[in-house]
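Recall the central idea of this unit: under ordinary conditions, the amino acid sequence of a chain determines the structure it adopts. In this exercise we apply that idea directly, starting from the sequence alone.
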Amino acid sequence: MGRRALAPATVALVLAFAAQACGGGSAGNPPHAAAAPSVVTPPASLSGQVWTEGSSELTGLLIAASERFRRAHSGVEVVVGLSGEDRGMQRLCRAEVDLAVLSRPLPASEIRACAEDGVQIVRLAARAGTFVVYTRARALQRPEVRAFAEYVAGGERIPTDTRSPHLHEKDT
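Accordingly, the structure predicted from this sequence is:
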């Protein structure tokens, strides 16, 4: 097969993969979070910011993950929000943050609401029963967001028993 014949086939294959990755399917299927593509080793010189939110119970985990990730990727600043699970998910759906780490899976209705507002939510695999990582499909296009999201979702290097700081308690 010559180069000219191969190019349209390659474009068709890439477009089919992109449609599948973006959750393309028939209109009759219920909305769901698209599965993220397989883990890709991040480039050595990442830079930029990653904005995160999540469950207040998981703030300690996010802080520990951001510190460990920063040691490996000093050019990436990870900002850990303290809004809590519901507000964090709202911020993700408004594209105000890149990543939401929740203690529960999202119901299809919340994912559908985000999609109706033009934000495609992607669920990354995470440790079962511990936490669930969600991100925006568009945010995953940024290498620093993809690398941090996959780092958190991988979870094996992050202690899940890290206690969250008690930010709203008074010292006695």
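Helices lie at 3-21, 59-72, 85-93, 108-116, 143-154.
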